[in-house]
Structure to design on (448 residues):
């Protein structure tokens, strides 16, 4: 996690530890501040703490206890304008009501950064 | 063997310069860049091959699917052409094993294979490694297999007996402390039970150093841990801080660190370890191919490494089990 105040901030929610580490490092290297959560419940706590600074929720859809769709819905209730990008191996499973954008696995680093930029710039 | 060093020392500039000079000489003899396309797969000990990255002569892509909803091809000849990447369908692949040897392997089928609690579509080969030791959370990887023509080089594992190992442990300490502090701050409303000065006084153990010489320096990936004694309620398994990441050495300047810390218990839940599989140099740049795995997931990656910069190119989720703790 980087502490510079003016960086765009991503709340990354991913249950897979190795995958989360790879995504977090790629995003940090690209100049984003990244808060990491293992699941929806951790993400809600982090959002309570850092929500004012979070620009984008980047979440896996398939997680135990609270899936990405439910998390997205809860965070959207807290902040209607929060930008969402959902990662899924199953494009068809993304709920269009809650997940405006999705990124289907597998993807390259360029795919990830391009999509993140696209959603943040919209 | 682990090396435990708790106070700062310095790696002499002379030794470092000599190492880097040797690296430059080694690099100068590297093969000429080869821009031919190829596809990379992880080769498991049971002979299953999991393709995950392709090089088209200019850039990397991820043509092999990782989701579980596509139809399984009945035979190798039924694999959709786009899955193979720019190199196209290939029956013969070259296995580059982590023991430094290489051999040709042949595809014998295609099948859905379990990877942790999920499944992946894998190519079956005539390769068979030694029996996997019991208790492994996933099938061990013996190397990579390549369809196409590119040399795969070994990523060096620095010996725990080498002077580099001890020197790295000493030099890493300030960056380790920074990564640990950042990891602690990332928790919501949690204070580490050991205060800063007590934490920073505790030694760190280097657990792995992987290294490659690049044209103007050294690139290393390090894994290190600091352990804390169990407290009441820890059930005998105390906290640890696991720090891993890149150390870039360029000329005579101070090393550049890209480290990430994880706070965990001694069971190392949620900690990911690297298994280096090899490096390639298809366009003059050096790319590491490796697996990052935890007790319940594995991912495969291709990362471009240079003495002044690290760039991930491919990030591929290999398989996982859901977390069982909240």
């Amino acid at each position: 996690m980087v502490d510079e105040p003016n960086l765009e901030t991503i709340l990354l929610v991913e249950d897979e530890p190795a995958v989360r580490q790879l995504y977090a490092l790629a995003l940090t290297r690209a100049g984003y501040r990244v808060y990491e959560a293992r699941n929806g419940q951790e993400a809600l706590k982090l959002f309570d703490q850092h929500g004012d600074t979070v620009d984008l929720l980047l979440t896996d859809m398939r997680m135990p206890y609270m899936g990405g769709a439910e998390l997205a819905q809860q965070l959207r209730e807290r902040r209607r304008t929060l930008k969402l990008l959902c990662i899924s191996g199953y494009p068809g499973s993304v709920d269009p009501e809650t997940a405006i954008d999705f990124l289907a696995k597998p993807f390259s680093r360029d795919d990830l950064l391009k999509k993140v930029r696209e959603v943040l710039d919209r | 063997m682990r090396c435990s060093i708790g106070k700062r020392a310095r790696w002499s500039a002379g030794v470092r310069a000599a190492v880097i000079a040797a690296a430059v000489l080694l690099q100068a003899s590297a093969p000429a860049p080869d821009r031919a396309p190829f596809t990379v797969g992880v080769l498991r000990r049971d002979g299953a091959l999991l393709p995950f990255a392709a090089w088209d002569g200019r850039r990397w892509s991820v043509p092999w699917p990782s989701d579980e909803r596509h139809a399984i091809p009945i035979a190798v000849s039924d694999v959709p052409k786009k899955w193979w990447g720019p190199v196209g369908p290939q029956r013969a692949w070259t296995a580059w094993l982590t023991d430094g040897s290489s051999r040709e392997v042949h595809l014998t089928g295609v099948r859905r294979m379990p990877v942790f609690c999920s499944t992946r579509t894998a190519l079956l080969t005539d390769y068979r490694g030694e029996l996997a030791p019991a208790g492994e959370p996933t099938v061990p990887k013996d190397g990579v297999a390549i369809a196409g023509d590119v040399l795969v080089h070994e990523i060096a594992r620095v010996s725990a007996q080498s002077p580099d190992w001890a020197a790295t442990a000493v030099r890493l300490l300030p960056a380790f402390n920074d990564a640990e502090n950042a990891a602690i701050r990332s928790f919501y409303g949690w204070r580490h039970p050991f205060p800063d000065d007590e934490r920073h006084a505790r030694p760190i153990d280097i657990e792995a150093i992987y290294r490659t010489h690049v044209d103007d320096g050294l690139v290393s990936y390090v894994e290190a841990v600091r352990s804390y004694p169990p407290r009441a309620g820890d059930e005998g398994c105390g906290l640890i801080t696991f720090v891993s990441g890149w150390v870039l050495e360029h000329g005579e300047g101070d090393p550049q660190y890209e480290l990430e810390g994880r706070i965990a218990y001694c069971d190392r839940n949620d900690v990911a370890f690297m298994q280096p599989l090899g490096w390639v140099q298809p366009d003059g740049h050096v790319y590491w191919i490796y697996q990052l795995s935890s007790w319940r997931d594995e991912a495969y990656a291709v990362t471009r490494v240079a003495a002044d910069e690290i760039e991930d190119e491919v990030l591929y989720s290999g398989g996982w089990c859901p977390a069982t703790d909240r």
